[in-house]
Amino acid sequence: MKLTTMTQVTIDGVMQGNGAASDDRRNGFERGGWARGKGDDETRAFITQTYQRAEAFLFGRRTYELFAGSWGSIDQMRAHPIGVALNESPKYVASATLAAPRWQDTTVLRGDLAAAIGELKAKPGGELQVHGSGILTQWLLENDLVDEMTLIVIPVILGQGARLFPETGPDLALDLVESRVDSKGVTIQVYRPAGRPRYATA
């Protein structure tokens, strides 16, 4: 399977609290809900179609619990095409502490996470998708496990919050696969990791 990620970020790279204002208030974050209602019908269709082509989903613990309590539990959300895709597909959670996952067809990955994800990627099939799960996405990028990365960039600058790309971290070159901008200024950028960047020499 190809491991793909999809992350909503602000212009200044913040990924925290994109959904409901109360979803994630860690470290005094007060500007949640910045992605709610953004994007036009074409962007929403792109996101839905992405979920629908998943072979399986991989989550970090926090995102898993948010999704399980919404897409996995609320009837109206379960009936939505995204909810159907999530509920009908295998789900994997990277967690050392989750003991009894409540969402059906969930497997908790413990121990050697890189080896476990490598085994999943070696299986035939389509995409192993990661949505949200910022800390996990950072770890996957650091360990060269991401095959394709989609950024949905919302035209807002927050000035606070956890960022997808930390101030210090590994460097990574990217090849642009697809780019589009919708009628509300939301951009979708699809990249493939391409090794380390080249730097100019003195």
From TrEMBL:
Residues 16-36 are annotated as: Disordered. The lineage of its organism: Bacteria, Bacillati, Actinomycetota, Actinomycetes, Streptosporangiales. InterPro entries: DHFR-like_dom_sf, RibDG_C, Riboflavin_Biosynth_HTPR. One of its GO terms (molecular function) is 5-amino-6-(5-phosphoribosylamino)uracil reductase activity. It comes from Thermocatellispora tengchongensis. It holds the Pfam family RibD_C. Coiled coil: none annotated. This is Dihydrofolate reductase. One of its GO terms (biological process) is riboflavin biosynthetic process. Residues 3-187 form the Bacterial bifunctional deaminase-reductase C-terminal domain. Gene3D superfamilies: Dihydrofolate Reductase, subunit A.
